Amino acid sequence: MKVTYNWLKDFVNITASPEEVADKLTSAGMEVEEIVYQNKHLHDVVVGKILKIEKHPQADKLVVCQVDIGKEITQIITAATNVFEGATIPVSLPGADLVNGVKIQKSKLRGVDSCGMFCSGEELGIDENYFEGAGVNGILILPADMKIGQPIDKALMLDDVIFDINITPNRADCMSVIGIAREVSALYGIEMRKINLSYDIDVYAKDTVRNYVNVSVNTPNCKRYMASAVTNVKIERSPLWMRARLNAVGIKPINTMVDITNYVLIEMGQPLHAFDQEEIEGQQINVRQARVGEQIDALNHNTYELDESVMVIADSKKPMVIAGVIGGTNSCINDNTKTCVLESAVFDLKSIRLTSRKIGVRTDSSARYSKGVNVASAKMGIERALHLVSKIKCGKVVRGIIDIASEKNEERTIIVSVKLINDILGVEIPTKDMLRILNNLGIKSTLAGDRMTCVIPPYREDLENDYDIAEEIIRLYGYDVYDNVDYELFKNSAVTEGHHHPRLALERKLRSLLVNNGFYENISYTLVPSDIANKLLITDKRKNLIRIANPISEDISCMRTCMAHSLLANIAYNQSVGNKNLKIFECGRVYLTDELPLKNLPTEKNMLAIAICDDSTKNNENFFYMKGVVEAILNNTSIKYSLVRSSQPYLHPGISADILVDDKVIASFGQIHPIVAKNYGVTSTIVYAEIDDDYLASLPAKKITTKNISKYPIVERDIAVIVDEKITVQEMLDAIKSSCGKLYYKAKLFDIYRSKEMQSDKKKSVAFNVKLSDTEKTLTDEEVNKVMQKILKSLNFRFGAVLR
Amino acid sequence: MIEEQLKQIREELSTDIKNSTNLKELNDVRVKAFGKSGLVTALSKNMREVAPEDRPKVGSQINTVRSELEELLKTKEAEFENAELARKLQEEQIDITEPSIKVEIGAYHPVADVIDRLTDICVDMGFSVVEGPEIESDYYNFEAMNIPKNHPSRDMQDTFFITDEILLRSQTSAVQAREMEKRKPPFKIVCPGKTYRNDSDATHSPIFHQLEGLVVDENISMADLKSMLTILMKRLYGEDTKIRFRPSFFPFTEPSIEVDVSCPNCHGTGCSICKGTGMLELLGAGVVNPKVLEMSGIDSKKYRGFAFGFGLDRTAMILDSISNIRSLYRNDIRFLEQMKGE
Questions:
Q1: Measured between CA atoms, how close is B273 to chain A, in angstroms?
Q2: What ipTM was predicted for this assembly?
Q3: Superfamily assignment of B110-340 in CATH?
Q4: B287, A502 in Cβ contact below 8 A?
Q5: Closest Cα in chain A, distance from residue B259 (Å)
């Protein structure tokens, strides 16, 4: 919301500087985002008069002008062709710093002194709409009666200061100059000036507004509709002061009647519409919902197809205006308008919001209606407009204003507790300050004991209870009262026990494990492109991607259903910038649903995904490293699982495994399927793992029990056997364990070897290290040898293994 | 006579020991003394020439000399061994400036790290950490937060919608009502998580992280909020951190405030990070709007609350001096490696 310093001064007699006012407003919650001095680039520019023009002795295209700039006559050389002797023109003098970056200094042009430059409208930052002649291709020729030597910012009324203020949605009443002025008035404790709403009417004329228009309201979405008529309308350029105000807040001046409606919109926050009375068929205004099939040609040159959800202002035949949003070309003010009907209405904000969004049109009017316009403001708005008609003498106001209101908005009285207000704030505010602040805000307040009676003005629809009043008090009293507040933590509250989230706590352990083993944590966008299921060869329910209705771009249009996408995309990105070997992981969610479109909230599953990409290793070393990582992770929980070949479509079918619990896959790991890797543009081998974190977090805590350890030494022996390839290491380890009986302490694989000969026989040599221990005594060689024989026998008997 | 000899032998051998320059020479002295035909050995052999009554005395004198010499030998030997060890150690010296064999350690993501740090601080202060869905109903994200449909306060956020009633949560505040429905006051909760807004430019990522805090109890006030946030910010940014309140508006709090935190970089004197103001606008907060409590079934006559919420991406960016929000989600290893710190 833009307002100007001078405009505010119309209503509050402030002497503080614009910066001070801005600081005060910001400290009270009206954040001033920008202060713009209109005349920032107009210093050292004055009104001058050309006394004499002579040819430049050295240049055909230049002329030498003698110019009266008030206090002296100066010489300026110009190439402009539209200047003449006696012309009044803007002169920029040495020191000027124009808006287009031109800096003026004394100079010589082809040997002749020039002490400045004449300015075009563009060089002063104005256009034809603002000032006649400002749009011509050449020097701005000013009216001859302008005072010579006057600074140009004063002469052209470009000396205001503009505030751009961020108005929070609860303060629709501040979407106007008057609203901001009320805040300034309260902040400085200076009373508001009375708003001039008076206007002249021809007391002898017999006609009333009813002779020009009738109104009927046939929709609940219109809360109030006021209309008045103005005859003998003069459609012309409005006076400079009015154009100056509109120009300052970024509204293009057009003509008297249109400018008045815009002026009131900014000043009072009340949108108005002006109709050409002769175009209102049947002199009848009907406020109603549109009929299906109706159309309107709007002022933005678009044609809109209407339906019953859209409220229109229609005459007896056709819609003239999309209510509160945009006018139609069929009834708007034009250069030939003689009689004008002015509308000042209040519409339901929801209706305007829906229409504005539906047809995709946002105007100054719809912006205000969408935030909420107060029912009381319609009257003030139309009266202010009629005042302006009288003031600038652009028409005769007809007696009477039509006023159809379905809703009244009057002062409300609420009673609040001083103690509660202080309890909410946690600081003691003196009651006299409370009363002063509220009364300054226009909230007439009186105190009886703890009870404070507050009369809320109609425009403060946001104030309902003690909490709202507490906020009004503290924001004007000043939040700096808290600067020195430093109480004991929760001194008046119950002690509560803090708990970490169980899954996050587990994740933190796992993340630590991974980081300490050289992995880097990733966080990726959970919004993904719509083709990830295809790229990952997924055909199960993970292909049901939940799609955003209003995505920013296709790349981030759907919710992730598989973590593999994120890590593969991250690897592809890293490889593209030369980061080759990678160990990464991410804790994140996948969003799964059985049905689309979504009827209920989907399942959000927390997953831990890990990827290793390292081309320096061979023999599936990375697969087994990843297996180790997965085992280390699972080892943090009490999980009991089995390992089977994986069925994940994006993993290599021969080099992958699933971790099963009760036939449910709770983790998968393995090499990325070559087609998938290709789909992501990754050429190296990637080993990937994903683990269902929610499942791990749901498990009971791991129970720890210890057994007594033997005080006798462990005896170690190695054994190497040759067996068929198809015999697994795990089968043999199980056999070894059972052969050892109670002497078993540990057994592990330490080597697998395949000579050429063995390979052709489909055999391998497998070597184990076996550790034995007895709790009662030191084992003798004889006893150990017996066990080793037993192991060999068992391996031979069960798997055909022979000693190597 | 034998005593003379003994004395002489002792002198001679002591000198030999003293003068020997290496282990071999020392060994020669040992042989000269105690070898088969060594001087001391010879003396012992000559005992029979000593009068029987003198034998105990002489014997004991010989033994004294023997042990004296042995002690000397031992000391000298240790001397040589120490010298030898010192030489060897010197010889084995390596160049310690050669590059290390790296222990491979990765790094946490800066945002995840901030979540860890903040939740730790909050748990210490009696908060419990909770989570909620990111794909959320319009009710919990908006309506239960006092943001009715078609209300102007909806304009504050550009929301991603999936259907008319289902959306991507635009604020972790969506978790507030869910928890209030579940819990009985007094309680304190914090909720970290992802949030989504249809907003993407140099300083906004459509996906970002927030931490929401909510306290509901009987005597909660704005001053409690100040005290609690002061502790939180001090733990995060350092003991000399100060915070300041400014008025603001959120539909779910009343009064609503913005909280400015003294710039951890310049400590309030003004720098490029805080654009010369000395303060950083870091979080929104306020006293819970009684309408919000009532909607979730909490008696607003009896209970009050405060709530706060802040952007974790921005927090991470300040803590780790990260200049571009995009780098948080690109997962470039060259960026993540820097999270190990210096």
A1: 18
A2: 0.86
A3: Bira Bifunctional Protein; Domain 2 (3.30.930.10)
A4: no
A5: 10
